[in-house]
Write a structure and sequence with these properties.
Layout (H helix, E strand, L loop, with lengths): L3 H11 L22 H9 L5 H5 L7 H14 L6 H11 L7 E3 L18 H17 E4 L1 H5 L13 E2 L10 H13 L3 H18 L19 H12 L2 H5 L5 H4 L4 H5 L1 E6 L2 E6 L13 H8 L7 H14 L22 E2 L1 H20 L3 H21 L1 E2 L4 E2 L2 E2 L4 E2 L9 H4 L6 H13 L24 E3 H12 L4 H25 L5 E3 L6 E2 L12 H13 L15 H11 L4
Helix pairs in contact: 1-16, 6-22, 8-9, 8-10, 8-22, 9-10, 16-17, 20-21, 20-22, 21-23
Amino acid sequence: MQGINRLLQLGLLLGLELGLEGALPPPCDSQIYCTGELLRQVQMAKLYEDDKHFVDMPLTKAPDQVLKDFDELQKSSGGNLSRDQLKTFVNEHFTDPGQEMETWIPDDWKDSPKFLQNISDTRLRAWAADLHNLWKKLGRKIKPEVSKHPDQYSLIYSAHPFIVPGGRFIEFYYWDSYWVMEGLLLSEMSKTVKGMLQNFLDMVQHFGHIPNGARVYYQQRSQPPLLTLMMDRYLEYTNDLDFLRETDRQTERDLELNFWRSNRSVTISHHEKNYTLNRYYVPYGGPRPESYSKDEELAELLPVDARESLWTELKAGAESGWDFSSRWFMGSNYLLDTKTSQVVPVDLNAILCQAENLMSTFYFKLGNLQMSQSYLQVQTQRKEAMKALLWNETLGSWFDYNLENGQQNHAFYPSNLSPLWAGCFSDLDTVRKNIKYLEDNKILTYKHGIPTSLQISGQQWDFPNAWAPLQDLVVKGLAESASDQAREVAFQLAQKWIQTNFAVYQNNKAMYEKYDISTDSGEPGGGGEYKVQEGFGWTNGVALQFLSRYGDWLTSGSVPVLLPTSCLLLTLLLLGLLC
């Protein structure tokens, strides 16, 4: 039975164990950081340009005292506080965000990891070294006082140091961390990765799931469930099976965890057969604390009785990681019509399909053949459901499924190819159809990367923005297939993305969370709720992956015009790329 607790943490988090009952995670009950009159008044007064600023501020006193002082201030002013009064109150009772952390240089960072020597282009090699150096700027460690007085902070205490995305994101985030870890492993920083994994496992132990990010106001929602893949990447690099075998947690506690299966699944009747898949769904209303004023002002356009529903859908959109996108709009191209919970997303189910296979592998390695086989059976059921509901033979791709109308959303999103990335559907016929799908939608004609969608909505997860993790969803899936043509297309796409990142870095000496690929040269992205952020954890990680995979062939020159498939294939064969 060795290893059962660790695997239960992984499997039950994903909702993969059978016959177990789960409960919704409790909402954050902080009357300062999550709900309450103080939060409402400060955020609606817009004391700060970014609502996230206030909910990241540590308290200078115990929360009960802060609330008591606020109540007395309201009474003394007749309940009508001015903006200046609120500002004075906040200045007296809070300190600036980030004071609860300190910059941390990972002690496993080294000057010259091996992969750098495999990059032939000297300019790209120097740039890759810069990206490797960025881990030192993005390292953080939480101060001990957060553990001693947790109720005075919105930051969730984590015992191990970590890498943050950058910019306004001064804490770690769930799905961001997968691509960060990929980059860290290339940088030979497995100790840092192990610590970050331990932080996530501690969150599973404490909350029953991994929150969106390491803040109490994120507790109501999670993010794309990539913990199992994180563990797999760490094990592949280190072969540290002892980490998988550790039994430092009580099985009884783990058995209560069943987050994704119990709380995020939906059963769909199709052709007289029932299928179960997963969706994003956050059954808690109220504005998001970190975007309070925006959510409140948007909801004012609706009748009062419709506002809570909108807020739950916005939170579900945030749980998806795609906050926000036309993927979640129903009936218009406008944020007000967000209905994330009514979408069965391709990528979420691809991630869970992959996780089921990995859990089977983990159990096999630990000698539990019965559990290993059980996971393969669960995966088979999911693949059958995905094939029935999400696959479109005519269009040659997978598509999100709309629960309201029982139809697929045939708009282009890179996530449509995520089952190939997940390794769940990678036969040559499917790969060939996926490539034709990219060609039919003219995705390969974009000079600077794969667009997030072809819809212009003003939201950051739509055209003209391109995001690093979505490049990986397509490139890795194609690159690891058995198709020469697919591997050729993967190289083309990786080359364009690297040259875009490199060109912007040369101009601005910064990496960004997203890029605008509609311009002649490629620029930092825009749209959405906040300004484009520098850093940037997952962008660094994906760039390092591409540089490592294609280091002998990538060039720093201008983005080339795409050659016809047959010509480029011959060129790559001559270079030995496909050998």
